Amino acid sequence: MIDPTLLRENPDAVRRSQQSRGSAASLVDDAIAADSVKRAAMQHFERLRAEQNAFGRTVATAPREEKRALVLQAQALASQVKEAQQKSSDAEAEFARIAGSLGNVIIDGVPAGGEDDWSLIREVGTTPAFDFEPRDHADLGELLGAIDIARGVKVSGSRFYFLKGVGARLELALMNMALDKALAEGFIPLITPTLVRPEIMAGTGFLGEHADEIYYLPADDLYLTGTSEVALAGYHSDEILDLSGGPLRYAGWSTCYRREAGSAGRDNRGILRVHQFNKLEMFSYVLPDDAQAEHERLLAYQESMLAACELSYRVIDIAAGDLGSSAARKFDIEAWVPTQGAYRELTSSSNCTTYQARRLDIRYRTESGKTAPVATLNGTLATTRWLVAILETHQQADGSVVVPTALRGYLGGLELFEPIA
RNA sequence: GGAGAUGUCGCAUAGUUCGGCCUAGUGCACCACCCUGCUAAGGUGGAGAGGGGUUUACACUCCUCCGUGGGUUCAAAUCCCACCGUCUCCGCCA
């Protein structure tokens, strides 16, 4: 939910944002109209209600013999009040529906356009060159006994897999390295629920256009989360936070579930795009004025992880039309995947400003003692998908894979993954 | 899954019997000031959340909120229905 005051006082800013996203700017005018209808209806209802309340007090204290006549009068008033209340709550719901469909107001500098209109922030590292034909991660995974796709499909269907042997160990090593990084930066570790209630899912903005991407358990009315961001954002819902000591930073580890309904035929090979994977996610609650600095900070942590994995990558500023509704800006880091000859997303970091917090009712106390929504940000610190880039980047001609130095300590000193017999 | 208990503005509670001076009282904690004078106490006042009106702002004023959503009624914390959470016991259980 965007700031209704901004909608009233600076509708042009919201219009520009909608245009950059390629969404309907006319929604802004609809929202403003609905807002004024809502307020008129509220005022009408509240005036009648005040009258009714006053009358009620008269009835309560009236002598018995006058009560009967007074009650008859009050009955007429009550039906008017009821009607006005209905109109008011309808108008309120209508405003919420329209205003809720407006995306977050993007931050200046975010490129306009869609999926391909991102702008490059920087490229880091040199893309690996091989004097042999590199194998893709699926082949390497099989060769090393690290990834068992066939049995994953047998047990659970397409886009499922087993991590096995050094593959399983590599994932745990990566997660542990990421956790240590997070701890060093002051994040509080959390292992989060992966099943959440509808209001939490809706509050984080995932039940909008992408609802078909989400697993749902109708028998229990619960959703399986595609990222621990959902639980991490819901963690402080309906709370007033004390941020006087600085931001609240959490590192949430969870398994993530995605239906991948809209990606049939894409990335069918290997574990690039799967229904289930693990992720360590950073999540920050900060004062609104600190949000942009925090975004840079999360990005820096991510880059240091990529560097520790000795990967070559680029940082991109995602275009407005490719942002989720909650994000005001999103930076992705994409690592070079040799056999694809392309950069592929390994991390994503969003600044949701106050949009998500407003919907989840997460506030802080301003200096004047009033409450105001906080800003929320999230970013990937490690996921299963990183194995793709790590295996492919560090492979050798014989199919072995050199373990990045920083990860060796998490693998009992193992320096090389070797093909199994 | 079964039985029972329970949910009140930070925490703890009063209020629910029998609907109406509940505009939800009190204690603790909190904030400001005063007094005292030394590691503690006393006094006065303030102070919940969301929204509307009016405001540069302060202030003022109105509406809503007693787990959630409905219902009955002129009037609901209080009565009725459904749901949710928590606790206790029983059952079941990777």
Task: Please summarize what this structure is.
The protein has helices spanning 4-9, 11-21, 26-61, 64-100, 137-143, 149-156, 166-184, 198-203, 229-234, 291-308, 355-360, 386-393, 405-408, and strands at 119-124, 147-148, 162-163, 188-191, 195-196, 216-217, 222-224, 239-241, 248-257, 276-286, 313-317, 329-337, 342-351, 362-365, 371-373, 375-383, 401-402, 416-417. It has 421 residues and is of the alpha+beta class. β12 (329-337) and β13 (342-351) form a beta hairpin.
Structural commentary:
The structure is a single chain. This protein is of the alpha+beta class. The protein has two domains: 4-100, Orthogonal Bundle (Helix Hairpins), CATH 1.10.287; 119-417, Bira Bifunctional Protein, Domain 2 (BirA Bifunctional Protein, domain 2), CATH 3.30.930.10. The protein has 13 helices and 18 strands. The chain has helices at 4-9, 11-21, 26-61, 64-100, 137-143, 149-156, 166-184, 198-203, 229-234, 291-308, 355-360, 386-393, 405-408, and strands at 119-124, 147-148, 162-163, 188-191, 195-196, 216-217, 222-224, 239-241, 248-257, 276-286, 313-317, 329-337, 342-351, 362-365, 371-373, 375-383, 401-402, 416-417. An eight-stranded mixed sheet has the order 1-11-12-13-16-10-9-4.
